[in-house]
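User: I'm curious whether this sequence folds into something compact or stays loose and floppy. Could you predict its structure so I can see for myself?
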Amino acid sequence: MIKKIYVVFLIILTASCSNLDKTKDENFLNVEDKLISKLELIQKDLQLNNSTSLKESLDVSLKERYAINKLSEYDLSQVKFYFTKPEIIKNQGENTIGLRFGEEIFYFNVEYKYLNGDWRITKFTERR
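Assistant: Here's the prediction. I'll summarize afterward.
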């Protein structure tokens, strides 16, 4: 009798643990989709020369904020934006963004952090 109870207990324990792993993966995919949709929103706003969504999602140093402010002084309606798929580890992500001004392409490494249900840009550096 004790063996049967022990076996039933182990089956319930392993079944409940496997369900936890599935919900964790679904939450992770949801977080990744949030970052991609936020990047697309920022891209659309910048192409309309509106940098408010970019500035609201910043959590960077003064030097990086200055570079972003200088970038927003240009007419970005003719700029093509390219970004790689973000690599996400736990609550941090990073990717590379390319801005094409006519013949020139500028690359930036961008790092993100997931805080309070929203992605924040924590590092924005030009890549050489």
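Summary: Residues 87 and 103 are 28 Å apart (CA to CA). Strands lie at 80-83, 87-89, 92-101, 104-115, 118-127.
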